[in-house]
Amino acid sequence: MKCSWQSGNRIKLLENGDQYYPAVFAAIEQAQSRVLLETFIWFEDNVGRKLHAVLLRAAQRGVHIEVLLDGYGSPDLSDEFVGELTSAGVVFRYYDPRPPLFGMRTNVFRRMHRKIVVVDEQVAFVGGINYSAEHMSDYGPEAKQDYAVQVEGPVVQDILQFVVENLPGKAAVRRWWKRRHRAEENTKPGEAQALFIWRDNEEHRDDIERHYLKMLANARREVIIANAYFFPGYRLLHAMRNAARRGVRVRLIVQGEPDMPIVTVGARLLYNYLVKGGVEIYEYRRRPLHGKVALMDDHWVTVGSSNLDPLSLSLNLEANLIIHDREFNQTLRDNLTAIIAEDCVRVDESMVPKRTWWNLGKSVVVFHFLRHFPALVGWLPAHTPKLAQVPPPVQPEMETQDRVEAGNTGVKP
């Protein structure tokens, strides 16, 4: 399957769980025939229980529901929690579930990291937000800053087709005759052009990275990238620096209050190279940044699940939406520029590692690693992950039920 640009879409930016969860839950409540949901993390907390409740109600009124969770990201849902859904008819699958080895999870590589919801072929959601309370602003200082989009229009069919073709037993439909479209200047306000893209370990290994590279090559005035786990390949770093050197204002927002300290350590190894090349780097200090968004000039935007790190660019299953629309571009620009002004610290010379032999040596190692990482991936575990469906709980045998009923009436079975 290969998607083309679709015109005439209505797209809404959703910030954090405060906006995302009500929109998703309302769409599921209104579902008439089908709900398809994929996510990396689903926790059994107050947010997870609300998702559970809305799915259960939909299934009980006859909506066909299929859920796909990652075996690494969501290993701890209780049997009772899952069993209630499967008993109601929900098809519940795990991507690459494997038992711990000496208490450690071994399914580290090739995670199903997508976050997609499709409801009734009418509305879809794509982004980086999981189902956990830490995506709500009232969670506290550790609440994550993140984004997703709600989509209506022709591109929903592409997202639906992608999800369906990745279900077990569904072969991809290859339409070689399908005309390829290019994004053009959009003159209809509120009707965005959109392209659904994804990364897998087969025919679409570098699709998301290629679109980032193309965006940086085409930029004329401005690029803003906000990315939670920033440790990209050499080509992308080189493209960012080249864009800045030809006069494009390139601003990068990374974590300043990371959920994992190694994230900042990795990103800061790249500061010298980028800052010296003219890239403006801002550390988001309000809380952990979990977003994966970018914009270019006054029309190009991407929102999705893909980080700019080795896992997302070379191993994980990811999905992004690319949008050509001035109005949506301005909405995201307003959001990111406010974050830069209010919640970020710009990286200056004092924060760039000093030029010592030790730091030079580390930089050489890092750049060679980034340059050759795609080839090194071949040395990592190359098993083929499988989808495992959770069966409904075993129901009481009819004979046992007859005995109970007979005991209540005093009649022998």
UniProtKB/TrEMBL annotation:
<dbReference type="InterPro" id="IPR001736">
    <property type="entry name" value="PLipase_D/transphosphatidylase"/>
</dbReference>
<feature type="active site">
    <location>
        <position position="115"/>
    </location>
</feature>
<keyword id="KW-0443">Lipid metabolism</keyword>
<feature type="active site">
    <location>
        <position position="120"/>
    </location>
</feature>
<dbReference type="InterPro" id="IPR030872">
    <property type="entry name" value="Cardiolipin_synth_ClsB"/>
</dbReference>
<feature type="domain" description="PLD phosphodiesterase">
    <location>
        <begin position="108"/>
        <end position="135"/>
    </location>
</feature>
<feature type="active site">
    <location>
        <position position="297"/>
    </location>
</feature>
<keyword id="KW-0808">Transferase</keyword>
<comment type="similarity">
    <text>Belongs to the phospholipase D family. Cardiolipin synthase subfamily. ClsB sub-subfamily.</text>
</comment>
<dbReference type="Pfam" id="PF13091">
    <property type="entry name" value="PLDc_2"/>
</dbReference>
<feature type="active site">
    <location>
        <position position="292"/>
    </location>
</feature>
<keyword id="KW-1208">Phospholipid metabolism</keyword>
<feature type="domain" description="PLD phosphodiesterase">
    <location>
        <begin position="285"/>
        <end position="312"/>
    </location>
</feature>
<keyword id="KW-0472">Membrane</keyword>
<feature type="region of interest" description="Disordered">
    <location>
        <begin position="391"/>
        <end position="413"/>
    </location>
</feature>
<keyword id="KW-1003">Cell membrane</keyword>
<dbReference type="GO" id="GO:0016740">
    <property type="term" value="F:transferase activity"/>
</dbReference>
<keyword id="KW-0594">Phospholipid biosynthesis</keyword>
<feature type="active site">
    <location>
        <position position="113"/>
    </location>
</feature>
<comment type="function">
    <text>Catalyzes the phosphatidyl group transfer from one phosphatidylglycerol molecule to another to form cardiolipin (CL) (diphosphatidylglycerol) and glycerol.</text>
</comment>
<feature type="active site">
    <location>
        <position position="290"/>
    </location>
</feature>
<keyword id="KW-0444">Lipid biosynthesis</keyword>
<protein>
    <recommendedName>
        <fullName>Cardiolipin synthase B</fullName>
        <ecNumber>2.7.8.-</ecNumber>
    </recommendedName>
</protein>
<keyword id="KW-0677">Repeat</keyword>
<dbReference type="InterPro" id="IPR025202">
    <property type="entry name" value="PLD-like_dom"/>
</dbReference>
